[in-house]
What we know:
- The structure is a homotrimer.
- Helix content of chain A is about 40%, strand content about 15%.
- The first copy, chain A, is of the alpha/beta class.
- In chain A, helix 4 (about 115-120) links the parallel strand 3 (about 105-110) and strand 4 (about 125-130).
- The radius of gyration of chain A is 19 Å and the shape is globular.
- The interface of B and C includes residues 51 and 287 of B.
Amino acid sequence: MTLLDRDVIAVSDLSDDEIQALLRLAREFAGPEGRPTPRNELADRIVACLFFEPSTRTRLSFESAAHRLGARVIGFSSPAATSFAKGETLSDTIRTVSHYADLIVLRHPKDGSARLAAELSEVPVVNAGDGSHSHPTQSLVDFFTIGDERGTTTNNNVVLLGDLRFGRTTHSLATLLSRFGNKVTCVSPPGLEMPEGVIEECARHGRRPDQTNDLVGALADADVLYVTRIQKERFADPAEYLKYAGSYRIDDDILRHAEADLTILHPLPRVGEIDHAVDRRPGAAWFRQARNGVPVRMALLTSILKETPQILTEATR
Amino acid sequence: MTLLDRDVIAVSDLSDDEIQALLRLAREFAGPEGRPTPRNELADRIVACLFFEPSTRTRLSFESAAHRLGARVIGFSSPAATSFAKGETLSDTIRTVSHYADLIVLRHPKDGSARLAAELSEVPVVNAGDGSHSHPTQSLVDFFTIGDERGTTTNNNVVLLGDLRFGRTTHSLATLLSRFGNKVTCVSPPGLEMPEGVIEECARHGRRPDQTNDLVGALADADVLYVTRIQKERFADPAEYLKYAGSYRIDDDILRHAEADLTILHPLPRVGEIDHAVDRRPGAAWFRQARNGVPVRMALLTSILKETPQILTEATR
Amino acid sequence: MTLLDRDVIAVSDLSDDEIQALLRLAREFAGPEGRPTPRNELADRIVACLFFEPSTRTRLSFESAAHRLGARVIGFSSPAATSFAKGETLSDTIRTVSHYADLIVLRHPKDGSARLAAELSEVPVVNAGDGSHSHPTQSLVDFFTIGDERGTTTNNNVVLLGDLRFGRTTHSLATLLSRFGNKVTCVSPPGLEMPEGVIEECARHGRRPDQTNDLVGALADADVLYVTRIQKERFADPAEYLKYAGSYRIDDDILRHAEADLTILHPLPRVGEIDHAVDRRPGAAWFRQARNGVPVRMALLTSILKETPQILTEATR
Lengths: 317, 317, 317
């Protein structure tokens, strides 16, 4: 019931209560404008951001969140300039860095690497994406944004579109949505369907997601459309990637089939899945979604590193 | 008449009064030794330094300036480890990062990118060099240094030497010098002359710059010699670069034609344009020029992020 | 007798008294758990970490040390995104950066580069490894760890194993050990022997190190075994490297010849020289050795940048 000193490797590590507490804390941090005011909760703490894969949003929003809380940041944005280049194992890197920081944020291309790191580290580990396995903070940001945009995190009708096979963010988001009583519809190019295991896990927690190729039909009564990128870096074979690249594209034309207030999300980066003209729709929420990365990650860092976040004691005063 | 919340994309964005106020503030920050004392004006602010091109001086002096003011820094020094590598557009990167920081410092290889970024960003953008277009903070540092070394920012006789075609720092410096009543003489290898548009802009503001191939003649009554590097990275064709590389070199021999107290500037890095023996001349000012990067950028950051810089209210007490 | 404002390029720059004072200060900083509590000694100071070669432990532990003392950090982890890429010399980079920071930490592939940097810099320079020449802070960490693990920094019987020719850390460690009255035995593959100059220097300070190929014999009465990596990056010819790679490997089998409480050190990264099963031995101290990097570097940074470290005045109260 407390996240203090805990690792966060997958959304399934968190109870419903813990998720709701995190979202409430993130809401407090976000403030009315979504731009967190600087705080001092984590002054004197060091957060290590170890990114073995490229990232803009995840790394910079974690670093911004740490700084907004007064913490310091060390780390790297690519393994090229580290001892990885000399042949060091991830295990040895983690065991070492866990002596230099109070918390490790890890992005790594290999599935399962974050769980391994958590077992070896002396300090808590937060998974910032491990291969196609999991990316829990992105799912929390997505879920927070749905609540923010729709006014509720329950009973929404959410369409997940795109590469649902390798798109790690959609796996835990689908489960989260099901756990909290939302309807999920999966639309993907043939061959990139949501894995059966994820469908089963959703069904265990709530309603079984629909699966369809009919995007237009799915859009008709959707509240939220969640678009993903075909991630070139997840395909072993470039020819395989080219088969899918450009197989869907959201533009104003197709959106005539949806409600005017449809909320559209995308974890970004986007590389052609959404026409730039769509940016003008009021429901185009991906930059607000990116913005929410800071307060949600502030909530997580504080909850792991501080017994009772001061903001909560303030809020209940 | 205030820089608060303003973008700084080109020196022409700044009025004469604003430039003079910036230089005064930079002087205050520099202190008698040129080594700024740490301040707290920007505690709790985050500055994002987004460098899409290599840099030592500009990036590190911006970061040093931010830290000397108590701010925090996030960003990257190369696009390799960002979502740029996944195909993200500059627009999307800027719109995202403007939610993570209070000000964006941008260096980018494309002309006009800084102006585009300023239009999309939610927070002020400072141009740290966009292609061969503009590099306003370098010009402010150069102008400040001329004032510091010569005792005045007006009535100086300044020779600009080298690649005046692609050398973005010389364009805005020439204009600045003309605006403040200095005489400018342009000396460049044939083919790398100062663009006619810049000459015209100088003429509109003050005296029309002289253009000549006769460096020895130009040196005779010069107060300041500003040397630039032939920038390999600005030439589309390497053969084109090789044609110019090494076409001029300042050494003690040629400097016999100049006054003993000639001030010599170079925005650095230098790669052979100045013989290392020249370092011993009292007028060799390029490392002091590099040093001045910190107080000048401190002045700019404070003016954009703070209503009334405390140092000014202190100074007038 | 004070390190204030001093460069630290080699262990030989430090007197015995200075080394003992540093180790005492590091012990204070380390605290009972080896995890330093944050301090404020260097608030408002900027440390520049200039790494021209890959590093994980050295860079991140220097940065962690700086942050634990309240300092700010600027710099780079690879020269790729700096003006080095435009052809700038190390001299010009150092002379520039010495205006942006209060202390420079330098790692560079060329022997002697740190001494050169110290001569040109306006601020103190700490050598974080220059080619195969010297890596004094690693040697201080190693020596501190021997004291911590064995209860004394004198009269230990220390076996140095591996590439003693290019392994810069073993050169200054051997000298240090000899200076403080320890027995040193050198075991290396033929061709990678400890340089004669180092042997002579040890002999001048204390007992002449033994040199042998008989690891099993050397282990019999050893207190400490110091294992090094064959450093691929120090061999001009890859074929030369392959000749040595894998030529020794410490496993439980060979360790049957040693005392049960043998302390085993390795500067890390390791790439096969130590079997992972050995990690379970109580004397496997390399992660504690890595951890000690923070308090030892805190001690060094404070001693160079502060007249009387507050912790010492506290300790003597």
